[in-house]
Amino acid sequence: MKKILALAEYGFTILSLMLYTGGPLTVLTSGGVNEGEAEFYSGSDNNSLVKIVFLAIYFITFVLLTARWKKVVYMLSKDKYILILLGIALTSILWSARPEATIVRSLGITGTTLFGLYLATRYSLKEQIGLLGWMFAIVLLLSFLFAVGLPKYGIMGGIHAGAWRGIYNHKNVLGKMMVISTTIFILNSISATKNRLILYLGLSLSIILILLSRSSSAMINSIMIIALFLISHTWRWRYEVLVPTFITIITLISSIYIWLIDNSEAIFAAVGKDATLTGRTDLWNLVWDMIWKRPWLGYGYGAFWFGGESSVSSELWNAAGWIPPNSHNGLLDLWLNVGLFGVIIFALSFCKTLTKAFIWLRYSKTSEGFWPLIFIVYMIQSNLTESALMLQNDIFWVLYVAVAYSVLLPIQEPIYTKEKILIKT
Q1: Hey, which residues does 360 pair with through a beta bridge?
Q2: Transmembrane helix: present as a keyword of the record (predicted)?
Q3: What is the mean pLDDT of the segment spanning 21-33?
Q4: Is residue 145 within 8 Å of residue 194, measured between CB atoms?
Q5: Has this prediction a pTM greater than 0.85?
Q6: Which helix (H) or strand (E) holds 421?
Q7: Are the C-beta atoms of residues 369 and 406 closer than 8 Å to each other?
Q8: pLDDT of residue 32
Q9: How far is CA 187 from CA 11, 119, 125, 196, 367, in A?
């Protein structure tokens, strides 16, 4: 019976992870709408099936956390920044520009945060990477099946006609997920003692889907992540070798950065972009104007981009001349949601997690030690031109919470023994 329950819990975790990536419910229930169509911008807030599914995930997650409440209390006692940030989101209903939106989305971010906490308290980093490997294997299979067998859903039409989106509602989402998938299959293949050919196949298919998605940001980010993975190996070298190597790397990166700035127009043209990043820089200026109208506490969690003629975003939409669904920048959207106070709390959490990630990379001897640093860097990369920071029902926040709490655990010490956590006193 215990084996059946354990298997069911694994299945629940893998399925939930896939749903948190954004597929396949959204694209299926939308009927395969494309960017530019009015229905595309309604998102999942008005989708009853998606709401019910995630409510079920929240409930099951809460039950599983309750069953391991001692681990949960221990984890929460080690880092309170995420709890404070969650508290700001929940209390923002008091000053929200759209209280009804804040109530719904605050419930969503609470459930999403709890699932990330569940991953950290239930599974080690190695187990998390293994689960993500199984999940992305399913995503790969379904994405090819959608594109080949259900092209209305798996391949975009409209302004992005021909670009693959797999089980997601947009090609850029597929691209973002495949960058994570590429990283996961690399890490799993390093530590694997068998089935390496299958892992290499998963890695190859992930890269193929990045190319088929035609997401230029995903292509660039995947190259940068692979470069980071190669460079991060030097962090485990002896100090007498590490210091000069890092000086050389920093000098090289600085030179490349200067070259990129000097040749930015030619580079943008080469990847089909312009200097405004497809209108993003103009949008950011308008977002800044809205931020400074309510800089300290923001507009309430999830309230700014709620939509409708009477919404606060309508003023920005009128000025922009189009209807962006978000700021296309994670930090700006976080500021709109929870204000400067919330941004500061997140910055403190991020700095602590980044420091711990470097420690894990330095002193761990296994492949999973690379994961925290690589994911955190990629999360920041993704949020430069897209918005995926502290969003409800979003895999980036799930993984950030899981990583932030997982790196707080001791390295090379057994943490889980017969469902009891070993705490040194």
Answers
A1: none
A2: yes
A3: 87
A4: no
A5: yes
A6: strand 420-421
A7: no
A8: 79
A9: 21, 18, 11, 11, 6
